[in-house]
Amino acid sequence: MPNLNRRALLLSGLFAPALSGCSALGVYNAVIPADDGASLKASGVAYGPDPRHRLDVYGPGAAAGRGAPVALFVYGGSWNSGDRGDYAFVGRALAARGVVAVVMDYRLVPQVRFPGFVEDVALATRWVKAEIGRHGGDPRRVFAMGHSAGAYSAAMAALDPRFTRAAGLAGRPYRGLVGLAGPYDFLPLDASATVAAFGQWPRLEETQPVSVASRGAPAAFLATGSQDTTVYPRNTRNLAAKLRGLGVPVVERVYEGETHVGLLLALSRPFRERAPVLDDVVRFIQET
């Protein structure tokens, strides 16, 4: 594996500065080796009326059976940037392991502010519950998954059922929550991105996953990197502790030496030896 390790180090050096804010990954997708056994099942599907309401579906190869678990993936980008096509490597990585992956776009700041991006996750979930069976997924086994700001939106949709009820969904529509390096407990607002996204909301405690979590929430996989200086690991620790106190099953992982971006890149082939993020996420999905 030495050649792969050298390539991974080269890619890390080239892309880590550009990815520090979860910015575009299109070039990264073009140069990394693709996962075998995964395919793009549907592209640019509308799940709502806005031009940003679009999603892609990745699934296991044609020989795979139906009724696979489903991960609705929400990317990061400080709630103000991102494109689903840049995260094809996430969709393919999950699909190659037998998970139907839905990678969604959503409305961004300044077009919307809180709670618009969370409402879009709920709206995409409605599409998934109604349509994913046609793409090999099991609508009874839907997981809200995200990285960074996307993990925030996934957590809010999964933990506060008001969002999914407003989208026309009954009960708790998620089997589980997968949060990677998410901001869940970040008051007071001390960064321009959080002020822009949340500063207009009159009751800021209502914007925090750690505050809205309640009994009956879905099981959660919450992960962080020990060297994350973008979203501090205390966010993961605090939400994990809150959920455990409510009797919610939680798998908590701290990957030693990993950074904010490193946690995401560990889903891709060149970086999987650095941290078993993909193995752990898929195991959680399969066993929940």
Automatic annotation (TrEMBL):
Molecular-function annotations in GO: hydrolase activity
For the BD-FAE-like domain, which residue ranges apply? 55-243
Q: What is this protein called?
A: Alpha/beta hydrolase
Q: From which lineage does this chain's organism come?
A: Bacteria, Pseudomonadati, Pseudomonadota, Alphaproteobacteria, Hyphomicrobiales
The UniProt keywords, alphabetically, are: Hydrolase, Signal
Q: Which PROSITE patterns match?
A: PROKAR_LIPOPROTEIN
Signal peptide (from-to) = 1-26
Whether Iron-sulfur counts among this entry's keywords is no
What Pfam families does this protein's entry cite? BD-FAE (PF20434)
